């Protein structure tokens, strides 16, 4: 049974998903006219570069949480086990070339994520508590009038949250055991308590939590990675060589690495890249749909920034640490790739390095599971009404403990299957509604109320 799950996962993330995501990314990038490259400077100023800029009090903005809180909530979900554990898993199963394909999907993912966020804000609505709710299940139902496809997405996401919670908890438990030799069951219980205490408070408490902790944990992790890479500066050329060379040719077994063909590099690079930045699978738009904004495109720009921060910055930092320290070639490395980042940080920074990874992973995992659980709750609300939310909250909290004591390989495979089940209906919707995304993009960049005003040529 377990081998069957792994085989199904490997097949789905072979040609079917690679072709779907690759062609969809190219189509949306061309249809939107490469605007994210043309306006790269403006997009940076409006997002990361304008974090501390005060909101215009006269702007006609509506929403439940701030745009920055929406970004950090979405990043809290995307920056997690995928960045710290998923990257070494991709390297050990697909070779260093998998990182190149992770970059490729990230570059194409920008317009996919932008389209998701724009549609989520466009078709959002208020729930019984007066909070804004949105996401694929709403733009599929309202924009396409295809409720059956929205139900498909919502059911797939409810399952994916449980699978992802287990993967996240398993990654944390392995890292804690590696660093502190603490029983995974104990780690699972502590994580359950932390997550349960926050998700009871809803999206406002989640937004407040992520706004404070996500920037801190990202900074600490990147600082540690930067120190290790600089200390191995003589390896940078070799690292780039490994990534680019083995993206296009098979790599033979060496040390603890079992070898990989090109198809494995592409498969694992794409799968881990998608799990990392979540472009196309429809989760992040659920958080962005709650943001206070005056136009769907303005919030969509934050989605673009999210992909850059998550995959091109954090995942790349992890990859360079793994490859520059050489831990991926050590004997036995392939037996437990999930713990490789902890090993690499300990190699580069000593005992404190292992602590940095474990503490970072603790914050990453807890914040990811908190936001993921919120996403799952919104699906339960969409499918069964507000009363069903408490049932899924209990299920998601319990899945943390199950994951902490479970097996990693089969959980990653279950996660990949559920991600594909979410991506298919979502990508269909993005392609069918792309005309509306283009219309909103053109409206924003030609209006004296938005882009032209921002650059000093509007009202």
From TrEMBL:
Localization of this protein: Cell membrane
Topology in the lipid bilayer: Multi-pass membrane protein
Keyword Transmembrane helix assigned: yes
One Pfam family linked to the record: Na_Ala_symp
Gene Ontology CC, one term: plasma membrane
Record flagged with keyword ATP-binding: no
This protein's UniProt keywords: Cell membrane, Membrane, Symport, Transmembrane, Transmembrane helix, Transport
Residues passing through the membrane, by range: 12-34, 70-93, 99-123, 144-162, 182-201, 213-233, 239-263, 307-328, 348-376, 388-408, 414-433
Gene Ontology MF term list: amino acid:sodium symporter activity
UniProt similarity note: Belongs to the alanine or glycine:cation symporter (AGCS) (TC 2.A.25) family.
Annotated protein name in UniProt: AGCS family alanine or glycine:cation symporter
């Amino acid at each position: 049974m377990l081998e069957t799950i792994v085989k199904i996962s490997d097949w789905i993330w072979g040609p079917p998903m690679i072709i779907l995501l690759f062609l969809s990314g190219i189509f949306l990038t061309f249809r939107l006219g490469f605007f994210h490259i043309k306006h790269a400077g403006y997009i940076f100023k409006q997002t990361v570069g304008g974090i501390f800029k005060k909101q215009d009090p006269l702007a006609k903005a509506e929403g439940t949480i701030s745009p920055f809180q929406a970004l950090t909530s979405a990043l809290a979900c995307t920056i997690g086990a995928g960045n710290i554990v998923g990257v070494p898993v991709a390297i050990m199963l697909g070779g260093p070339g998998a990182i190149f394909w992770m970059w490729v999907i990230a570059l194409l993912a920008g317009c996919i994520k932008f389209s998701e966020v724009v549609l989520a804000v466009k078709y959002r609505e208020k729930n019984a508590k007066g909070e804004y709710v949105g996401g694929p299940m709403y733009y599929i139902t309202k924009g396409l009038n295809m409720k059956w496809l929205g139900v498909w997405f919502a059911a797939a996401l409810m399952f994916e949250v449980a699978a992802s919670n287990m993967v996240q908890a398993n990654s944390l438990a392995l890292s804690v055991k590696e660093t502190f030799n603490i029983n995974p069951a104990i780690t699972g219980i502590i994580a359950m308590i932390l997550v349960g205490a926050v998700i009871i408070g809803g999206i406002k408490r989640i937004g407040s939590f992520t706004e404070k902790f996500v920037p801190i944990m990202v900074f600490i992790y990147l600082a540690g990675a930067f120190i290790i890479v600089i200390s191995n500066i003589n390896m940078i050329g070799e690292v780039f060589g490994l990534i680019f060379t083995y993206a296009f040719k098979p790599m033979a077994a060496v040390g603890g690495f079992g070898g990989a063909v090109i198809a494995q590099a592409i498969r694992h690079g794409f799968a881990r890249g998608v799990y990392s930045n979540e472009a196309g699978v429809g989760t992040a738009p659920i958080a962005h749909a709650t943001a206070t904004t005056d136009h769907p495109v303005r919030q969509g720009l934050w989605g673009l920034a999210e992909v850059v921060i998550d995959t091109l910055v954090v995942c790349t930092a992890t990859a360079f640490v793994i490859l520059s320290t050489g831990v991926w070639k050590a004997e036995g490395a392939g037996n437990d790739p999930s713990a490789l980042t902890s090993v690499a940080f300990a190699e580069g920074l000593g005992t404190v390095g292992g602590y940095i990874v474990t503490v970072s992973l603790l914050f990453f995992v807890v914040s990811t599971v908190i936001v993921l659980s919120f996403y799952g709750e919104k699906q339960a609300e969409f499918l069964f009404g507000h009363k069903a939310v408490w049932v899924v909250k209990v299920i998601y909290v319990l899945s943390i403990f199950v994951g902490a004591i479970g097996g990693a390989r089969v959980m990653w495979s279950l996660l990949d299957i559920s991600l594909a089940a979410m991506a298919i209906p979502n990508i269909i919707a993005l392609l069918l509604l792309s005309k509306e995304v283009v219309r909103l993009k053109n409206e924003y960049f030609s209006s004296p109320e938005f882009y032209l005003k921002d650059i000093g040529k509007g009202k």
